[in-house]
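Model: Ready when you are.
Researcher: Fold this.
Model:
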Amino acid sequence: MGMKLMVTLAAFVFSTGLAWSAEEPVKREPSPAQKAQQEKMKTCNAEAKEKELKGDERKKFMSECLKGSTKAS
């Protein structure tokens, strides 16, 4: 009887642990600063695409654009 109880408890603990690990993480709303950065990224990406920039040229443009060194059109 004792062994049966231990096996049952072990199965319960194991199955409960799997259920807890399957839960989705809590998704948080971005902060105002994060939202502003996301918008800046969208604008800079759109401008880089419009200018058909590639490779190192695009990296340099994106860096400057995200720092605010260039004006987005």
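Researcher: Now this one.
Model:
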Amino acid sequence: MGFENGDNRILTIDNATQSLTILHDGFINLPNDTWKGSGVAIPVFSLRSRKSFGVGEFTDIKLLVDWAKQTGLKLTTASC
């Protein structure tokens, strides 16, 4: 947890006696250092190809891996 990054926001008010001003622009300046990713989770029985019997076979996993490589997905490990 931390405070926002960036410059302070300044609000100048003339004759601000007994008034309430709330400044909210809908944005917050936080560091963008969190990891984001996407993935695919498919049960083996859902894998079907033109050459399979239509019940999901382990041989269809290679086609899934080929597709993932073509689309730029990759396997990385992260330590928790």
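Researcher: Key takeaway?
Model: The CA atoms of residues 43 and 56 lie 8 Å apart.
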